[in-house]
Design goal:
This protein has about 190 residues and is mainly alpha-helical. It has six helices and no strands. Keywords: Membrane, Transmembrane, Transmembrane helix.
Length: about 190
């Protein structure tokens, strides 16, 4: 095989591998053949016969050098067509992911909201039961008045207890939500 045939086969194999900068590799091998021919004082055909097969050279280039490759035109057209046709699907999947994340936040924050509502309702029961218990203690009877006062004290104590738990849950849920949001944003930044 002479120099022209070798370079032609090398160019063909580089094109089949979709290498973008074919001319750079061809120029490198032209210079290599010329330099080896001068250095060893042999003909260019002998230097070419000493080189590997062009398929092997291209395989080595692809594994060692990782050159830039491009899509063939037909594949590029199919890829663009698939993106255009599939964009409603991808947009709906993205929207679904956003909705699921927001739903997760909502479900997590329903726990402190429920605790606050329970604490406020226990506070209202205690606030209503205290004057009602005092009035019923004198008007209706000692047993009913004592039960009413006990209910109001239980309501106040539950309001304090659940209020403290809701304060604690708000504090730690907000820290966890901020940490999760930062982690989620960092994952999106890594992806892009």
């Amino acid at each position: 095989m002479n120099k022209a045939e070798f370079l032609d086969k090398l160019q063909t194999n580089l094109k089949r591998s979709h290498v973008v900068d074919i001319n750079r590799y061809l120029q490198d091998y032209r210079e290599l053949i010329a330099d080896e021919s001068e250095a060893r004082s042999v003909s260019e055909d002998q230097v070419v016969n000493g080189l590997d097969d062009p398929k092997t050279i291209v395989r080595n280039i692809m594994t060692e050098d990782h050159p830039k490759t491009h899509f063939p035109t037909a594949w590029l057209v199919l890829l663009i067509l698939a993106l255009v046709i599939g964009s409603p699907l991808w947009c709906s999947l993205l929207l679904l992911g956003i909705i699921l994340i927001l739903l997760g936040y909502l479900l997590v924050w329903l726990i402190p909201a429920g605790l606050i509502v329970f604490s406020l309702s226990a506070l209202v029961i205690g606030a209503y039961g205290l004057p009602a218990g005092i009035v019923s203690l004198f008007k209706v009877g000692v047993a009913i008045g004592a039960a009413e006062l006990g209910t109001s004290l239980i309501g106040f104590s539950l309001a304090l207890l659940v209020g403290a738990i809701s304060w604690w849950s708000i504090k730690y849920f907000s820290i966890a939500s901020i940490a999760f949001s930062k982690w989620l944003i960092s994952k999106f930044k890594e992806a892009y």
